[in-house]
């Protein structure tokens, strides 16, 4: 840490932008993974963002805006959520300019998730719909599967309108998992549907997915999920 900070100070003193960028990248990594400290991590990422703008690196700028949004989101306060939303929207603008449809789709969905946390429900469905449209535009079924499941997760892991997750899992993500032959995702979605429908007091609707989960577990040789499926049945 001391070496990185010293290198950073020397680079600042000499106005060596590339040196500043390399040093601050190492400091970001240090405070995020080696010795996690949220405040320092945010500060160094924001400084790195200013350097990315200075060298006109739009790809790096978009990545940093995305990362800073996640950092603020993890703080768990309303003020932090609003900051996360601001950074997400800024990253969205860059991804649109760069025509990075996959990144754009994830940014739309992230904004929808934050609006859900802030309980601004009039905007949640709108942002999720645009995220889905961006994912479908790519024609990549794996991206569609990922986005539909993640959209369902927003409601599944939330505290209100949880029933909306059923449609995302059952009608959108699960058919794509079957089509792409992604048995891991298929099993995961079946388990989520069984659990969710039971919590919504609709266990009879979950029987089909419990049977599917059992068959998939046997096919995959997944003994733990097989036992869970038998228990649920």
From TrEMBL:
SUPFAM superfamilies xref list: TPR-like (SSF48452)
Q: Which organism is it from?
A: Mustela putorius furo
Q: Which PANTHER family match?
A: SH3 DOMAIN AND TETRATRICOPEPTIDE REPEAT-CONTAINING PROTEIN 1 (PTHR22647:SF3), SH3 DOMAIN AND TETRATRICOPEPTIDE REPEATS CONTAINING PROTEIN (PTHR22647)
Protein name as annotated: SH3 domain and tetratricopeptide repeats 1
Looking up InterPro entries in the UniProt record yields: SH3TC1/SH3TC2, TPR-like_helical_dom_sf
Matching Gene3D superfamilies: Tetratricopeptide repeat domain
